Amino acid sequence: MPGKNPREFDLIEWIRHNPQNLPPSVLMPIGDDCAVFDPRFASRMTVTTDVLLEDVHFRRRWVSSYWLGRKSLVVNLSDLAAMGSQPYACLLNLALPGDLTGNYFHSFLKGFLEEAERWRTPLLGGDLSNSEKVYVSITAWGSFKEDRHPVYRSGGQVDDTLILIGDVGFSRLGLEILQQEDPDRLWEITDEDSLASWSGDAFRFRCLKAHLLPSPLIPVGIWLCENGLANSMIDVSDGLATDLLHLACESQVEAEIQIDSLVLPEHNINQLSALEAALNGGEDYALLLSASPEQVERLSATYPSHFPPHRMIGKLSQGKPAVYLKQKDERQPYEPSGFDHFK
Q1: Which of 96, 112, 143 is the last residue of a domain?
Q2: Which of 137, 171, 280, 282 counts the most CB atoms within 10 A of its CB?
Q3: Domain for residue 171, yes or no?
Q4: What are phi and psi of 197, to 5 degrees?
């Protein structure tokens, strides 16, 4: 293991010699100018990339480097889940201040590689650099079986039912707790029991865990894809309403959320309501899909009991792409205000 002030070469060697389970289609992992794999193992592949930047996507004092390592891969794997693809491999670009190349680096990589092992997504390479703030960029690939096709945002059909799998709102409420209390020692916590103790009650723990340590719905996305049960799908990362608008625009349909069908967090946090957090919070990594009446019937009849609950929350209709909220007999157009990097 590298010493207190390791060179870049030492860090690369540490990654290279950390054991990983590589698929046989990987011909050259870390150690050369490029990784090499044989693409003939799958008929189609997906690729996605995301950036996590200190003071934009996270505060260093609010999250341990171990959990940041895990979450940085999760946000990419959630994109793969939204297409219904099986994770295949990933690349990591990591830039750190010089004083963080010791324990912080090793803790980050420990979390990252544990999450990669959990989802069988080996790290094939990337780049390391120095920077004033922590910068993480991940590229991840997914694959499909030969007879399967990706589930696109653009596949939504008129009269499709909107189905939500997973929770929305808790992550944004967790962020609200962090913003209001601004804890400066939370970065020391690396296990859920300690986080639960720090949280003080079960609801706050659920919110903080949703924000700091989310989990991608990979098995759910693959199951939906392999069984042909979704016409369109997107992961909820920028906010339920914002991501629904993305789906509506790509599918060229009008979308409606029935507010009474949403299962909201039990409490507000400060002045932030549970409904606002659910509609515009983001970083939920739930799956939002549309399905025909026949697909809905098959999904409901065969849905695995160990998956998160699925809820029918609205519908797609003929019309100009837009989002509407309906509550009882009142229906109003809604302008999403989810996450925007350039606000």
Answers
A1: 143
A2: 171
A3: yes
A4: -65, -45
Distance CA 76, CA 66 (A): 17
Residue 63 region, left (φ>0) first, then alpha (ψ -120 to 50), else beta? Answer: beta
Residue 209 has pLDDT above 80, yes or no: yes
Domain extent at residue 107:
8-143
Residue whose token pair is 């171990």:
66
Total domains, the chain: 2
- Each residue's pLDDT tens digit, 20-76: 677 777 766 666 556 677 766 666 888 899 999 999 999 999 999 999 999 999 999
Q: Same domain, yes or no, for 105 and 174? A: no
| Alpha helices, DSSP H, located in 142-217 | 170-181, 192-199, 202-212
> 191 with 259, same domain?
yes
Residue position matching structure tokens 């029918």: 312
Q: Is 334 within 8 Å of 324 (Cβ atoms)?
A: yes
Same domain, 190 and 133: no
What's the CA gap between 29 and 15, in Å, rounded? 11
Closest Cα partner for 259 from 295, 318, 313, 202? 313
Q: What is the pLDDT of residue 3?
A: 47
92 and 33 in one domain?
yes
End-to-end alpha carbon distance in the chain: 42
Q: Comparing 6-10, 114-118, 278-282, 304-308, which segment has the lowest mean pLDDT? A: 6-10
Is 339 among the domain residues? no
* Last residue in a domain, options 116, 143, 170: 143
Burial annotation 281-301 (CB, 10 A radius, 16+ → b, else e): bbbbbbbbbbbbeebbeebee
Does the residue 60 lie in any domain?
Answer: yes
The DSSP symbol for 53 reads: E
Q: What local confidence, expressed as pLDDT, does residue 6 receive?
A: 58
The pLDDT value given to residue 144: 87
pLDDT of residue 288: 98
Are 43 and 144 a contacting pair, CB within 8 Å?
Answer: yes
Q: Identify which has the larger pLDDT, 331 or 37.
A: 331
Whether residue 343 is contained in a domain is answered as no
User: CATH number, domain at 157?
Assistant: 3.90.650.10
